[in-house]
Specification:
This protein is an alpha+beta fold. The chain has 3 domains: 78 residues, Rossmann fold, CATH 3.40.50; 125 residues, D-amino Acid Aminotransferase, Chain A, domain 1 (2-Layer Sandwich), CATH 3.30.470.20; 69 residues, 2-Layer Sandwich (Dna Ligase, domain 1), CATH 3.30.1490. The protein has 9 helices and 13 strands. The chain has a 5-stranded antiparallel sheet, with helices on both faces.
Length: 285
C-alpha cells in the first residue's frame, strides 16, 4: 500500500476546502492508498529535522514554499513541486515563465520593487505602462486568489488610487481584453492532458470567478485552446493545474493555479479531478 500526505493550509476554513480535501481522501481510499491529512502549521520546525517514517509522496495543497522546499530536501516527491507552486503563486514569476516559454498572454508590465518604509513615491514607471497598455488596463497584486487583489482601472487617477492603496505590495499591470469582459475558460490539466473545461461568466463584474458571482457552463475546447493550456502547464512544470484562458481573437492565458479548487468543476462538468490526480501520481511513483 502506498502512503502519502495531503498537506493543506490549516488556517483556511470552510465547506469548499473541506469538500475538496474529502474528494482527494476518498479517491485515495478507493485506490488502496493511505493518505493522511496534514495541516502545514503542524509541520513547523521541520528544517534540519528528519521526518520519522516519511511519506512516499505529498500532495501539496498549500502555498507555503518554504515548507514545500523543506519536504523536498528530505527526498519526498511533491505534487506539485515547490518550484511550480512558487511560480504559480507569484503572478510576476508566472508572467516571466510564460514569456520564456512563448505562452501567449496579455501584454504585461511588471511594477518595479519598492520597500515597506518607502512605497511608490515616484510613478514615472506608470507612464511606460500607459504607453504599452492604454486604458483601461488591469492591475494585479502579485499574490492573490479567487479574483481578489485584481483591479480594472480606466484612468490615470484610478490607477494612482489603486497603486497608492496597495503600496508597497508587489504588482503588475496587464492589458485588458475587452472581448473577455467577465468571461474566461477554466481548463483543468492533469499529467499533460486537459481533462475538464468550463466557461465562467459573470455579468456584473469584469472578473469571471465563481467566488465573485460567476456562473459556470460546460465548454468544448478548441484544439488551439487546449494546446495553449497544455503549454502553460509545461512552462511552469505543473503536474496538475487550473489554467484560465481569456476569450480574445486568439486564446491568451490569464492565470494558472497550482492547487485549483475543483469543486466548481465537479459541479459543472461531473469530472472529479481527484481521480486523474491519483492516476498521475501513481504512474509517477
Amino acid at each position: 500500500m502506498k502512503n502519502g500526505w495531503l498537506v493543506v493550509n490549516g488556517f483556511l476554513q470552510g465547506e469548499k476546502y473541506a469538500t475538496l480535501y474529502s474528494l482527494l481522501l476518498s479517491e485515495a481510499k478507493k485506490r488502496n492508498v493511505s493518505l493522511l491529512l496534514k495541516r502545514a502549521d503542524e509541520l513547523v520546525g521541520i528544517v534540519g529535522e528528519r521526518i520519522p517514517a516519511p511519506p512516499e509522496f505529498v500532495i501539496f495543497w498549500d502555498k507555503d514554499i518554504r515548507l514545500a522546499e523543506a519536504l523536498e530536501a528530505q527526498g519526498i516527491p511533491l505534487f506539485n513541486s515547490a518550484k511550480t507552486v512558487g511560480i504559480c503563486d507569484d503572478k510576476a514569476k508566472t508572467a516571466l515563465a510564460f514569456s520564456n516559454a512563448g505562452v501567449p498572454t496579455p501584454k504585461t508590465v511588471l511594477a518595479p520593487k519598492t520597500f515597506d518604509t518607502v512605497g511608490y513615491n515616484d510613478l514615472t514607471f506608470l507612464e511606460r505602462a500607459e504607453e504599452l497598455l492604454s486604458y483601461p488596463f488591469v492591475i494585479k497584486e502579485n499574490y492573490g486568489s479567487f479574483g481578489q487583489q485584481v483591479y480594472l482601472v480606466h484612468t490615470r487617477a484610478e490607477a494612482v488610487n489603486v497603486i497608492s492603496r496597495i503600496s508597497p505590495k508587489e504588482f503588475l499591470m496587464q492589458e485588458f481584453i475587452q472581448e473577455s469582459m467577465g468571461k474566461d475558460v477554466r481548463v483543468n490539466v492533469v499529467g499533460g492532458k486537459a481533462v475538464a473545461s468550463m466557461l465562467r461568466h459573470n455579468e456584473r463584474d469584469f472578473r469571471s470567478n465563481i467566488s465573485n458571482g460567476g456562473t459556470a457552463f460546460l465548454y468544448a475546447l478548441s484544439e488551439e485552446q487546449e494546446a495553449v493550456a497544455l503549454a502553460a502547464c509545461k512552462a511552469v512544470g505543473a503536474d496538475f493545474a487550473g489554467v484560465d484562458l481569456l476569450l480574445g481573437k486568439t486564446p491568451l492565458v490569464c492565470e494558472i493555479n497550482s492547487n485549483p479548487h475543483f469543486k466548481s468543476t465537479l459541479d459543472c462538468t461531473g469530472v472529479d479531478l481527484s481521480k486523474y490526480i491519483f492516476e498521475h501520481i501513481l504512474e509517477r511513483l
